[in-house]
Amino acid sequence: MSMERHRETLLALTLLLIITLLLIMFSCDISYAEETYIVHRAILTIYRDGVVHVNVELLVNESEPLIMLPLLSPPERVSNILILDENGSLIDYDISDGNITIYSLGSNRITLEYDTDGLTYKTLGLWTINFTAPFELTLIFPENATIMYLSDIPSAIRMSGSRFEMDLSPGYWEISYEIPIQPPTQPPLQPPTPPDQQQPATRFPTIEYIIAAIAIVCAIILALTMLYRRRRIRALSDEEANVLRFIRERGGRVLEAELRERFPHIPRTSMWRLIKRLEKKGLVRVRKVGLQNLVELK
Q: Which CATH number fits domain 38-178: 2.30.30.90, 2.60.40.3650, 3.40.1350.10, 3.30.565.40?
């Protein structure tokens, strides 16, 4: 009788231990799910030249200091990276080992955008895109593209205007497509004019008149350009004017890091917005040099 009670006690303790372990695992899964990001939407848009624009919207825990997201392409083939929070403010990041680390503390919604030419290649007029999708995403093809091969069945296929759109599940994908060649547009041929209806030959002005007309046009364009530029400069703030003056003193081009070092009182995100305002006004242009931004006067 005591042996049976001992077995029942042992069985009860075993069941209690299993239930406790399950509760611990379940609570760990919940805490892990709370700490990870959620991909709200991911869209890959393919252009005619094979460049792919990646747009990913993430829902994140604002208490998390950072999140790590895999890039779909080798880092050296990625350019024009832009990361914004829900307020449109720039967010810092680092890239290593094919992943991008986003410093997301205080943000609950993040948009990641970048361009890459490392997902597509062209062979004998046939384009192919291949990549491993770490999450569900939508793939948008160029206009009038014809799908020639699919490595798997998409979740959904639809037409949006003249573009194919596919919803793809996580996993490896290889898709071949063909883009029709766009012939150059030519003016319609005009029938020859009968000799009796031909107009007399036009007498061209002398070279002096042509030179004078060109000089007048150039003078007008120069005057309008200077007037427009003066109006744009008058509308600048003190900080914008100081930044332009510093770029001019440095030979007309500086790195964004140099601007941040020269104007430490301007926050990094505010400096980037200032540069984008100057670019929008047509006073500077921004080029990517490696992983840095080069700001040049126009």
A: 2.60.40.3650
Tokens representing residue 33 in the block = 């799910």
Query: In whole angstroms, what is the distance from residue 177 CA to residue 145 CA?
Result: 6
pLDDT at 135: 95
DSSP codes of every residue in 17-62 = HHHHHHHHHHHHHHHHHHHS-EEEEEEEEE-TTS-EEEEEEEE--T
Q: Which CATH class is domain 209-297?
A: mainly alpha
Summarised one tens digit per residue, pLDDT across range 213-239 is 787 877 777 656 665 565 555 568 888
For residue 83, is pLDDT > 70? yes
Per-residue pLDDT reduced to its tens digit, 54-78: 999 999 998 889 999 999 999 999 9
